[in-house]
Amino acid sequence: MYTTNAVRKEENTTSLEKHMHRLEEIPDLMCDACVVDKYNNLVFLSVWGRDTALQELYSRITLAKKDKEFGLEYLTFKIQGVRTRVYVGNVKELTKRSTRTYKQTKFGTLLHTWIFDKSCIKPDKANHTATVLLEGEIPIEEFAQYHWSVIKDICPLPLLDHWRSEITPLLIDHKMCEDLKTFFGQVGGVRLILDIPKLEESMGDLILRDRLTTYPTHHTGLQH
Amino acid sequence: MALIFPRVAANFARNGYYPTDEPTIERILNAIAAKDPNQRIRIIDPTAGEGVAIAEVAHHLGRENVEAYAVEYNRERADHASTLVDHCLRSDLMDTVISNTSFGFLFLNPPYGDMAPGYNGAIYDQSKGRKRLEKLFYQKSFPMLQYGGILTFIIPYNQLDDELSTWLCNHFSQLRIYEAVDKQFKQVVILGVRTKKSDLDLADRKKMLGVFKAIYLGEMKAEELPQDWPYEPYLVPSSKAELQNFYQITMDPAELAREIANLKGLWPEFNLHMKYKQSVPRAPVTKPRDWHIAMALSAGEISGPIHSSETGQTLIVKGDTHKEKVEHTEWKTEQDGSKTFIRTLIDKFVPVIKAWDMTDGSPYKGKIITITTVKDPEPEQNVNNDGVDLSSFLFPIGRLLMTRGIDDLVQQGLDLLPYVTRHGQGDWGDGYESDNKQNDRAVKAMVDGHLYERVMSVYIIDPENDLKIWIITEWHGDDDGHITTVLLPSEY
């Protein structure tokens, strides 16, 4: 089932305590969630640290290839004993959200920041792509419902709600819906990349075979 | 005494960990009292162990008014201490940042021993004599006391060498030294009041140095800490200023995870930040007319099956409108015979309605029917400035816009380029002299390459018909930059 990633619970974690992963390149930063695409490109990263260390992260991933000494093209985490690289990819497509500064924590002043691909919050209707992220343990039906509403949003072809059970497997078969990898943390998701000509062809075929009908029941839908 | 864990404490007495014995703590408590009983007092034990000693001090001084702070390196002990005090860091003391002169009471029972070469806290070591851990901890801790704050310092008497004695006598007045009740570790308890050097009584200082030296050399024995304190108690002052810093430098994953469990960060707002904002369809307040339906359909607000009783067709429709740029290019021949290429991009909103033909028997069943149209051009057009020589311009003209009226004139053959060029070069045309002077001032007053005041030119195109055009350039902030608009006076 394509939703498993989003609802999977992180292993080796008690429900109260998150497992923190130190960023090897900037050890003063700790991460509690990381999601990547199939090429290990960064989709979502949740970082805690002091302002100075976070500024260092922003600037170093922005420099990336441009600065051989300080630029970071990838971030390294040790995940269950294995060194794992997360590639920054196209830094221009990344954006961030930050909390206010938490003062007087056990580590001084701390900030919490999410760095993520813009497609997570802004579906690209022109290119029919979107990234759907969910946090925590979401019931599969709730996920599927949300996922479907995003598909309807980015698909220029008319879609009816009762077509969902026919269309979603179609997207998976044609690789228009890919699971994202959760390296750690309680965030998961899928990336949607709709191929409209292919979808139009497949759906037309389903309509001709009366698998997609005007009404949920199996009559023809013709009223007059 | 509400918090006594003598047996627990005794179990921990190993591996260089020497908790202060219970009778000694009890007798220390007899020697101290709160100066202002109803005011906040801040106390600290930078080598807290299980936190028993500092917790008892907190109780003694009036628990509700006391903020107790502790630092402990051992994780299990720190876990225990954190249940007894208000703020506990599990950290090497040398890896902490704690504000100076912020605590009214300091309980210091440091680890004892020679420092290993290369000990990582050695950057704080100011000792010129024997490198001892207790000296390092003393140097790191005593500045935390506010002036008038009370020190309780416990060390083996044979470590009270000249250097440590001198430090104590330079930083504290009203010093007293006693033997701890438990004789096992040859400990002495030193009490004192942190005092500015200028306020020290030199005679007292000299006397105490002598006492410390005699005890260190074994010539004299400190008397046991008295069961009934015979003097006025040491008064622990209240702490009025806020504590600025109390944190550890190195990030510890497990400790941070606990801290995050309290802070939570952005997590509670995940859906708010990361879910697409989707509008929930609402029923219209009134029966929609045809044009309502057309608008809503082309805006993508309504979709679904429709039936035509006339043709017998069933369609499933969905509408959407997107913006397209329509390109318009032309070559212009200048007076000197050179040619410039002008590319004009016009925004067009294009509604597209797509429909599945669901009609049984229809040759188009399962095919998409697309209905689209092209609206009139928008009144404002983007003009690309490819054909303009920008280097001679006095200010950036930025994006060039023209109004509908100007567009009509351009369609009739008006060439804007010479006017825009004159405008950019500071030839303000046929406007009032005072306006032109104002323009000159605005150009002179440019900072960081942008205008703070707008500049405006007026050009007479056709004197007979009183046809004039205005060209206005304005700075619209960092995002939009400069915008130059060509317009008719009547369109202002």
Automatic annotation (TrEMBL), chain A:
Protein name, entry field: Uncharacterized protein
Annotated source species: Entomomonas asaccharolytica
Top-rank lineage group of the source organism: Bacteria
Automatic annotation (TrEMBL), chain B:
Keywords: Methyltransferase, Transferase
One Pfam assignment: DUF6094
Species name: Entomomonas asaccharolytica
One biological process term in Gene Ontology: methylation
Gene Ontology terms for molecular function: methyltransferase activity; nucleic acid binding
Domain DUF6094 stretches: 11-199
Stored InterPro entries: DNA_methylase_N6_adenine_CS, DUF6094, SAM-dependent_MTases_sf
Top-rank taxon: Bacteria
Annotated protein name in UniProt: Class I SAM-dependent methyltransferase
